[in-house]
Amino acid sequence: MPETYRTVSLIPFQLSPTGNIKVVDGNYLTVRERDHRESILVGKTKFSFQVKISGTVADLDIFDGDIGIITVTMDHAINSNIPTEEQIYNILAERKAMHRKFLDGSDSVVSAIESELKKIFAPSRCDIAMSYVFTIYAFPDEEWVKPELLMAIFQPSMVGIDDSLNFDEKIEEIEKITGGPSKEWLKDNNSDIRNGVTGLISWSSVIVIAGKYDYVKDYVYLEKRLQHAWLSLYTNTAYLSSIIERKLVIGSQEINRIREDASFEILEVDEILDPSIPGRHSIILEKMIETSNFDKLKQKINAQLKFLDIKAMKQRENNQNLSNRLVTSFLFLIALITAYRSLSSLMISVVGPLYSNLLAFIVLVAIFTVFEVIIFRRFER
Fold first, then answer.
1. DSSP reduced 3-state for 16
2. What pTM did the predictor assign?
3. CB proximity list for 233: less than 8 A, separation 6 or greater
4. Is residue 309 within 8 Å of 255, Cβ to Cβ?
5. What are the two backbone dihedrals, phi and then psi, of residue 10, each rounded to the nearest 5 degrees?
6. How many Cβ atoms from other residues are within 10 Å of residue 27's Cβ?
7. Which residue among 38, 178, 355, 366 is the one 20 to 30 A from 80 at the CA level?
8. Sequence-distant (≥ 6) Cβ neighbours of residue 187 within 8 angstroms
9. Which residues fall within 8 angstroms of residue 304, CB to CB, at 6 or more apart?
10. Could you tell me which of 61, 74, 55, 80 has the C-alpha nearest to residue 1?
11. Which of 355, 358, 360 has its CA nearest to residue 344?
12. DSSP tag of 55
């Protein structure tokens, strides 16, 4: 018997080069007004668009920092009479194929959105860097949805599947889930406090089981909020890593700019303080942050910035030492030049007038060389 479920795939991307966004009439993009609830949960955007093509409705949100998220909603059918192991393979294989089409540009909706974005940024060239997809699953509250199936989507490695772009070959036998999951497992991992709604949140996916698909919307909004902040921090950590690996030094102004951007993203994602939003959203968001390793990204960028701060401070000290050394050497050189004539006259009584100038020059060079060695060692300490 065919049953249905829904996926909502979030595709974060970085726009490059950055620039001013201008709204233009396109074939597919329609500027969309967001209601109060969505605006609070997602966070501030520059623009939100809606896309309708080939029977699929998608959203496009563009945030500060020229980070965007494409959100594609799709309905799927599956035979509930086949063994659970087959259901697991079919759903995960379909997800892999769906993700690959999003990223390689072969999906018609994503391709249309990319074309429209290039029009928005025209005549400037617009590069769209997409590197991953995060999918939220919405299941009806039906008996056919077995805990084993949910656990496999929740964490594919539990059934021996490598959830990566290299997952191409069909695994003949899905590994049995140790211990056999039960409804207790669902209860223990549920992040939703509403009756009749189960929300399972992991690094791999989010699963919402409820009587209506509408219940998944708040999870989508919160995941957009997190994915925007996550990609913003990740982009900065990748940039800082390249600086550190190449043993370069960036100035304090650049370091402070990145620190300010990172601090802003962290402040924006961590808490929802609007009193009109139920407190359960904070519980869901906290779990999303925990499973996304967002806190590890915060620690990494703080460590990188601290390291580059130390390097920049050392560079400033070296520059100051060099400046002080040059000034000191220059002043001493002037003093030697001033003393040259007097020293040359003094040398006449020692070597005679023929060699007095040469000897005076040799003595001054020797004195200046010894002085430079002393000054160099002093400023190297």
1. strand
2. 0.80
3. 262, 265, 266, 294, 297, 298, 301
4. yes
5. -105, 125
6. 10
7. 178
8. none
9. 237, 240, 241, 244
10. 80
11. 360
12. T
Give per-residue pLDDT as tens, 236-268.
999 999 999 988 888 888 898 999 989 988 888
* C-beta of residue 282 within 8 angstroms of C-beta of residue 217: no
Structure tokens at 248: 């370069």
For helices 356-380 and 294-351, the axis angle rounded to 10 degrees is 160
- Pairing relation of β-strands 47-53 and 134-140? unpaired
218 Cβ contact partners less than 8 Å away, ≥ 6 residues apart: 37, 41, 281, 284
CA distances from 282 to 198, 274, 279, 286 (A): 16, 11, 6, 6
For 157-178, write each residue's pLDDT tens digit. 777 776 555 445 555 556 666 5
34 touches 24 (CB < 8 A) = no
At 275-286, the pLDDT tens digits run 778 888 989 999
Distance of alpha carbon 254 from its chain centroid, rounded?
18
Contact criterion met (CB below 8 Å) for 126 and 62: no
Please give the single-letter amino acid code of residue 306. Answer: K
For position 50, what pLDDT does the model report? 87
d(CA 175, CA 115) in angstroms, rounded, equals: 42
Scanning the chain, the segments in alpha helix (DSSP H) are 36-42, 84-104, 108-121, 147-154, 183-188, 217-245, 252-270, 280-291, 294-351, 356-380
DSSP class of 190: B
pLDDT of 346 higher than 60:
no
**Residue 272 backbone class (left: φ over 0; alpha: ψ -120 to 50; beta: rest):** beta
